[in-house]
Write a structure and sequence with these properties.
heterodimer; A: mainly alpha; three-stranded antiparallel sheet; globular; B: alpha+beta; Beta-lactamase; six-stranded mixed sheet; five-stranded antiparallel sheet; 18 helices; 38% helix
Chain lengths: 429, 466
């Protein structure tokens, strides 16, 4: 694909964003407001900015990545605007900021490339752990934790009268993947060696299993202290899958699976909020007014979508709790139909396939693991939240990459795209 | 170390793909359940759902339709009140209730309807076509007039109900506007569907069933009985004839003449002689004590069990006259008359002929179905011959139609505020096309009050049919 085609795709996505916002504002207020133009310009500017940055600082990178990402972002931002215009306007600023972060990442890496990341691996690890622990800081501090709907995964930065909230977990996932890619690239041989056997399973030296146990420990910690099932599960799956990619040893999948099942059963028994998630997954209508309400409302919304949806502004997506964040996919399907939902899933498949393609062609194991880890992060997050809202899996509250409202999420995912582009550029480095 | 990349990539892509399949499955499989869930308030808002099709008679008259101003309207007022019913804020009733879903637009936003629309189907609200014929219905309502009662007319060949009237009536438009409150005690008498749900002693119309039991036992229409002025069943009070004296001049009377003049003494004694088992099984073959399937629901007609009648000869004698604890609906009596017009084979009564989409596609059609064999074919001719004489020279003379051979039977059942008048009829005897049952509560004698109503309905039908 040529560079021009990518620019055209970005323009189309921006046009969709503008047209969608125009339809929403006309349907809800009877007039097409300046928001439509603003949405078009924001999307066009943000992705053109990233496109230009890639051309300047990673010119050999694939030209496939930005198109599907721009489409997902456009569809998501329309529905966010539909659910709450104020959130939609904020999301425009987050998009600008996200694009700026992506450009900054490309700029930082422009001369010395990804080797820089490798050198500071333990700094990244420390940063990730620090970010994960940050929400536990007392609320009174200038940079203090905050509890939102039962989960303590927010940090509020107090700037005089104002405050700015963000989820440091989103940044932590990125730093952890960079650390793991770098660590595993140097140590995968030791982890892959399986000198011992336990029944039919080949086992590595016990000390080599330490990283798996650390992964499990960190996930459990996140679960216990922050009551964040989604992030915990996602981090754990990313760890295990990266270990498997690095070593190609099914032992890690089996061990990870066993730990996950044990952890799930144990935490369901130990923590009410986990047990409630499972029961509202299996029987959402048993406690309709209580714990099953969100899942049930999501199913009601899906039942009224049909192939082409109720039409923008014609549905009632805001009846679902957390419609603009966790449930953005269902809100999109309700108003824009099964067709749009399937198109979005196809776009995610494209992003994931392109990401793995970059990993397969990467110059060395660090870069391959980095690209794979970043792609796995996007894929696992998508699967967990889409599966949760359509009641394929228990619902875990995480954002849908690029589509959900949320600054932290959009910023870290845009950075992932920049890193993927850079890995792609360094193919022949 | 890249060999594990592909399996992981395929697994993750496969899971996203499976989510797509699952999402489609949710909409295909469970979509309609969640749509219908009363807690899903989207249903209250969905504009496509409020449009509904029309209810149309077999002769093309619109009985119920959407009011452009909102809600339903009933252009003919009270004429179809008890069968078509109403759809109002206060509730739904009649065909408006039973076919509510069928008359809604088929475009429910589902994948199926989207595909159907792509293939050119018109998913607009379907119409319900009734078997009722407005001309006959109008005649039935007019003939009943201000009398309290009911008329049911059935095509014996198919079971299609062509008239179904109950009086007093109400205007369903008044229920829509709130003028009539269906929960109001004072409104219950007018709301009652007397055709399907009024249970009264059928009186002498029941003698047709006793006569059928007699014919089955070997008695013929010319078998001779004593013509006495009274019969005292063992342990009971005396039964007299309607006029007080003997039934005819002379000391004996044939079964045919006993039916023609509705001779109580003969039929009371006949019931006792035949025995409780024969009388009750003849009644149960005619669907007494059975739940008659009917679009808007019908009460079960009743006769006491053979054992209890066996032990109480006086009750058996009175049951032979359709009195005491025997109860019938006009609907069942019409089905019985129709069975006589169809060689003894009763067809299941139905009132909805078909459900038709705006583009003419037939979505649902009622195929005529056999209900049961009520009478052996061997007794039907004798019964019709005797019943023809009832109309020709007996108590049912005012139920006739000039130039047409009609078989009929009158009934005058005891009631606390005056006798209930009954008449059942079927004709033309050569090839019956219409069966009618008429009930006029506290109206007087069946021959004087109910028979003329049947006559008006039959002649209107015959005029319509030709």
């Amino acid at each position: 694909m040529t560079g021009r085609a990518e620019a055209i795709l970005i323009t189309i996505a921006a046009t969709i964003a503008g047209a969608g916002v125009a339809i929403v504002s006309h349907a809800t207020t009877g007039a097409i407001t300046i928001d439509a133009l603003a949405a078009f310009i924001t999307h066009l500017a943000a992705f053109t900015g990233v496109l230009v940055a890639v051309r300047w600082w990673a010119p050999s990178a694939t030209r496939l990545l930005l198109g599907p990402v721009a489409l997902i972002t456009a569809v998501g931002s329309i529905e966010v605007f539909r659910i709450d215009p104020d959130l939609g306007r904020l999301q425009r600023w987050w998009l600008i900021l996200g694009a700026t972060i992506a450009m900054a990442v490309l700029w930082v890496l422009r001369h010395r490339g990804l080797e820089v990341l490798r050198r500071f691996r333990y700094l990244f690890l420390a940063g990730a752990i620090g970010l994960l622990l940050l929400p536990l800081a007392p609320s009174g501090w200038p940079l203090g934790g905050a509890t939102v709907s039962g989960s303590r995964l927010w940090v509020r930065l107090h700037l005089g009268e104002r405050s700015l909230s963000f989820q440091p977990g989103e940044g932590a996932k990125l730093l952890l993947v960079v650390f793991l890619a770098s660590y595993l690239a140097d140590n995968w041989r030791g982890l892959a060696a399986m000198p011992r056997s336990l029944g039919p399973l080949r086992m590595p030296e016990p000390r080599q299993l330490l990283p798996v146990l650390i992964a499990f420990g960190v996930s459990l910690l996140v679960l216990v202290y922050q009551r964040d099932l989604g992030a915990s599960l996602m981090l754990f799956m990313v760890f295990i899958l990266m270990l498997f990619v690095a070593t190609a040893r099914p032992t890690y999948l089996v061990a990870g699976g066993l730990l996950a099942v044990g952890g799930a059963l144990g935490s369901a028994a130990a923590f009410d909020h986990v047990a409630v998630r499972v029961s509202s997954w299996l029987h959402p209508f048993a406690d309709f007014a209580g714990s099953g309400y969100q899942v049930a409302q999501g199913l009601f919304a899906l039942s009224y979508s049909g192939v082409l949806g109720s039409g923008l502004g014609q549905g009632l997506p805001y009846l679902i709790p957390a419609a603009a964040t966790d449930y953005i996919f269902v809100a999109v399907v309700e108003e824009m139909g099964l067709a749009t939902g399937l198109a979005m899933l196809a776009a995610y498949c494209l992003v994931v396939a392109i990401g793995f393609g970059i990993a397969l062609r990467a110059a060395d194991s660090f870069r391959a693991l980095l690209a794979a880890g970043l792609t796995i992060t996007l894929a696992v997050q998508t699967i967990l939240i889409v599966g949760g809202v359509i009641r394929l899996l228990p619902l875990t509250g995480i954002t849908l990459p690029f589509a959900s409202y949320g600054g932290s999420s959009l910023l870290s995912n845009m950075a992932i795209i920049a890193l993927l582009a850079r890995v792609s550029h360094e193919e022949r480095a | 170390m890249k060999q594990a990349l592909r399996p992981v990539a395929y697994a993750l892509l496969g899971m996203i793909g499976f989510s797509a399949i699952w999402l489609t499955g949710v909409q295909l499989r469970a979509g309609s359940d969640y749509r219908e869930d009363p807690r899903n308030i989207r249903a209250a808002r969905a504009p496509a759902d409020t449009a509904r099709g029309r209810v149309i008679t077999a002769d093309g008259v619109i009985v119920a339709e959407d009011d452009p101003a909102g809600g339903r309207r009933y252009p003919l007022g009270d004429r179809y009140a008890h069968i078509v019913g109403y759809d109002a804020a206060a509730g739904r009733r009649g065909v408006e209730l039973t076919r509510f879903a069928a008359m809604r637009s088929r475009d429910d936003g589902s994948i199926q309807s989207w595909l159907l629309a792509r293939f050119g189907a018109d998913l607009g609200p379907p119409d319900v076509h009734l078997t009722l014929i407005d001309a006959v219905q109008e005649a039935a309502v007019a003939a009943l007039g201000s009398q309290t009662g009911a008329v049911v007319a059935i095509d014996p060949r198919t079971g299609a109900v062509v008239a179904y009237a109950s009086s007093p009536g109400f205007d369903p438009n008044d229920v829509v506007t709130g003028l009539v409150d269906p929960t109001d005690d004072a409104a219950q008498d007018r709301l009652l569907d007397r055709a399907g749900n009024r249970l009264l002693p059928p009186g002498s119309t029941f003698k047709v069933i006793v006569a059928s039991a007699a014919l089955r036992s070997g008695i013929t229409s010319q078998t001779v009985f004593d013509d006495a002025s009274e019969y005292v069943p063992p342990g009971g009070i005396a039964i007299h004839n309607a006029g007080g004296g003997d039934c005819i001049t002379g000391s004996t009377i044939t079964l045919e003449d006993a039916l023609v003049v509705s001779c109580n003494v003969v039929f009371a004694r006949l019931a006792v002689d035949l025995g409780a088992r024969a009388v009750v099984s003849a009644a149960e073959r005619s669907w007494f004590n059975r739940d008659l399937p009917w679009e808007t629901g019908a009460a079960e007609s009743l006769i006491p069990g053979a054992d209890s009648l066996d032990a109480d000869t006086a009750a058996l004698a009175q049951s032979g006259l359709g009195e005491r604890d025997v109860r019938a609906t006009p609907l069942l009596m019409a089905v019985i008359a129709a069975a006589l017009g169809n060689d003894g084979l009763a067809m299941a009564p139905y009132v909805v002929d078909s459900v038709v989409a705006p583009d003419g596609e037939i979505l649902d059609v009622t195929a005529p179905a056999t209900l049961d064999r009520m009478f052996p074919a061997s007794v039907v001719d004798d019964l019709l011959t005797m019943m023809e004489q009832v109309v020709e020279r007996g108590t049912g003379r005012s139920g006739g139609v000039p130039g047409v051979r009609i078989a009929g039977k009158t009934g005058t059942a005891e009631g606390s505020d005056g006798p209930h008048a009954w008449f059942i009829a079927v004709g033309p005897i050569e090839a019956p096309t219409i069966a009618v049952a008429v009930l006029v509560e506290r109206g007087g004698s069946g021959g004087a009050v109910a028979a003329p109503v049947a006559s008006a309905v039959i002649s209107t039908w015959l005029a319509y049919e030709s």
